[in-house]
Amino acid sequence: MDFYLTALLQGLCFSALALGIFISMKIFNIPDITTDGSYTLGAVVTATMITHNQHSYLVLPAVVLAGGVAGGLTGIIHTKLKINALLAGILVMTALYSVNLSIMGTSNIPLNGLPSVFTLVQISDNLNHNTFWIVIFFVLVVAAIIGYLLKSDFGLAMRATGNSESMIRALGVDTDRMKIIGLSLANALTAVSGYLISQYQGFTDISMGIGIVIAGLGSVIIAETLINWFRITSVWLSLGLVLLGAIIFQMVLAITLDIGVDPNLLKLVTAGFVLVIVSLPRLNFRRTS
Amino acid sequence: MITFSNIHKTYNPGKPNQVNAVNGITLDIKDQEFLVIVGSNGSGKTTLLDMVAGSVLPTSGSITIDGGDVTRLRDYQRSKWIARVFQNPLSGTASELSILDNFRLAAIRTRSKGLGIGINDTFKNQVKEKISTLGLGLENKIYQQMGTLSGGQRQALTLLMSVMDSCKVLLLDEPTAALDPRSADVVMRTADELIRDYRLTSILITHNLKDAFTYGNRIILMGEGQVKKDISADDKKNLKQADLFDWFS
């Protein structure tokens, strides 16, 4: 059972990343893969600051700032230099690998035994339960902030930017600026996932971000399938489904490992799983029409 | 209200595919004038309108709106004066947002979009009341996504959205081109009413010569990026519909 609790906790840690992908992909319609780099960046900043005995209340703002800057750079390259969003993301992601390595000075930093966000408050004696309550609180606060943001006038302008650029420009919104802010926000959220995961698993590794964008994409696609299925238009429900998507995604991976699939094949299974969820709605559609 | 002095617009200058879309137009559009622009495809009508809106910037010349020089201002910076209805109904509204959300954004066109939540009961009632004037029965569907509506309904709503916030200039770029005759009629009559009620200065581009004849108080014919004919209000009254057809023959 602990095995599945671990998957649940990982899912919760990844839900910030899923929200980030939701913002870049669903709200702004921009395929952003800065994610791999900004996720690691979040973890790297966390590990470096913790091992240098920085106050824990400084770590999170620093992580958010670092992720935000990374996303902002992708946004500037995409909008101001008119470079394809995918390429802009790849460029920043590639550059971040070196940046991350320079910040760390080594390819792996263990965090075992050091104070972390999960040892900040003692709610339960069981470490996993304690982690659960802290991470739940964390995720709900993040989701509440994003939910409120999307409901505000600024959020409406964000949603319209990804939906009808000509319309929102005619209504007085600088769409370039909006996209830069959006990508900044998305990658700040991604970095927060790096922050949570590195402290949860007790180390930061330079390669931990490789292919992580698929975890976010998978979660968002699960959520999207459900959103389309139940014709959901509410912002709050959509965000809730994205969080659920992140958890389902990790659960599926856990089940895969539990039934004895070779861990080396995990990325293959992941890719296959995402393919299945993407194609399911289309297959259904063909049969009914 | 809007002046153009010696405006030129060249696309792809110096390249084999260079296009001189607008060649030295000087135009003075007075306050509350309703200008209709007709002309064949490629005559520079849309480029001219885009330059008023700011989505295309001129190669040379200067543009003023309400007495101020706006030549280098981008479209989103000109929204404090200008509201716009596009040829494509999808361009003027956001499909995945509800009618209400679309109206909220339109209601703050001239202001910055802050972190407050602007949709409250007063606003909802205000929107319902506005929409009911269309008589399309949409006032009970304000939570519905814009994408579920027809092109005609969306164009009519886009028109209403333009007067949700203070507006001086209304730009209509072939607003009925994608619509069936009945919807087109609703949209054109709504536009005409709003222009009168709110005393707007407006520019209409159309290929429909009947509309060009019926609406507006000044008409210009464009060709090769220049103004070929300019018929003022008094002369337009004496203009016959057949004369308009002759322009194109």
Could you outline the blueprint of secondary structure elements for this entry?
The complex is a heterodimer of chains A (289) and B (249).
Chain A: H1 2-27, H2 35-51, H3 56-80, H4 85-104, E1 108-110, H5 127-151, H6 153-163, H7 165-170, H8 175-201, E2 203-205, H9 213-229, H10 235-258, H11 266-288
Antiparallel strand pairs in A: 1-2
Helix pairs in contact in A: 1-5, 1-8, 1-9, 1-10, 2-3, 2-4, 2-8, 3-4, 3-8, 5-6, 5-10, 9-10, 9-11, 10-11
Chain B: E1 2-11, E2 19-29, E3 34-39, H1 45-53, E4 60-65, E5 68-69, E6 82-85, H2 99-107, H3 121-132, H4 151-162, E7 169-173, H5 181-197, E8 201-205, H6 209-214, E9 218-223, E10 226-231, H7 233-238, H8 241-248
Parallel strand pairs in B: 3-8, 3-9, 6-7, 7-8
Antiparallel strand pairs in B: 1-2, 1-4, 4-5, 9-10
Structure description:
- The complex is a heterodimer of chains A (289) and B (249).
- Chain A contains eleven helices and two strands; from the N terminus they run ααααβααααβααα.
- Chain A has 289 residues and is mainly α.
- Chain A has one domain (2-207).
- In chain A, strands 1-2 form a two-stranded antiparallel sheet.
- Chain A is globular and about 55 Å long.
- With 249 residues, chain B is α/β, with parallel strands linked by helices.
- Chain B has a single domain (2-248), classed as Rossmann fold.
- Helix content of chain B is 32%, strand content 24%.
- Chain B has helices at residues 45-53, 99-107, 121-132, 151-162, 181-197, 209-214, 233-238, 241-248; strands at 2-11, 19-29, 34-39, 60-65, 68-69, 82-85, 169-173, 201-205, 218-223, 226-231.
- In chain B, strands 6-7-8-3-9-10 form a six-stranded mixed sheet, sandwiched between helices. A four-stranded antiparallel sheet of chain B has the order 2-1-4-5, with helices on one face.
- Chain B is globular.
- At the A-B interface, helix 5, helix 6 and helix 7 of A face strand 6 and helix 2 of B.
